[in-house]
Amino acid sequence: MARILSVDDSMTIRNMVKSMLENEGFEVVSANDGVDAMEIAREQTFDLVLSDINMPNMNGISLVSKLRRLDAYAETPIIMLTTEESDFKKNKAKNFGASGWLQKPFTEERLVGAVKKMLG
After folding, report:
1. 3-state DSSP call for residue 76?
2. How is residue 8 annotated by DSSP?
């Protein structure tokens, strides 16, 4: 099954995403911010990345930009999970390489559906 890197500064969100996706058979590794995620992404490869936008140390848009510079993540789907509703931030994330957007709060059905759609 697909391996997913989930990045969020909220432990509650990380645990919820991990539980929802592991229930569907996905392997999930969690990171608490963009810096942590980059360290993990350099050591392991993932089939999909889920990231919050607003995080300390390195935000999600910077993370997307840095991941896209790594050969292993040039084509990896990256879904932004965020409370942000701003079209400006959505467009900025897409311009830096985000593949999609999922608004918080989300249901298990919407999260799993988005992940499966991105993985084809």
Report:
1. coil
2. -
Task: Tell me the residue type at 115.
Answer: V
Q: How far is residue 16's CA from residue 6's CA, in Å, rounded to a whole number?
A: 10
Rounded CA-CA distance 93/45 in Å is 21
Report the predicted TM-score, pTM, of the whole model to 2 decimal places.
0.96
Cα(41)–Cα(35) distance, rounded to whole angstroms? 10
How many domains does the structure of the chain reveal?
A: 1
Q: Which structural domain range is residue 77 located in?
A: 3-119
Domain of 45, CATH number, reads: 3.40.50.2300
Q: What's the token pair of residue 18?
A: 């991990």
Run of H or E residues at 23: none
**What's the pLDDT tens digit per position in 51-103?**
999 999 999 999 999 999 999 999 999 999 988 888 888 888 899 999 999 99
d(Cα 74, Cα 65) in Å, to the nearest integer? 10
Taking the C-alpha atoms of residue 118 and residue 34, their distance in angstroms, rounded to an integer, is: 21
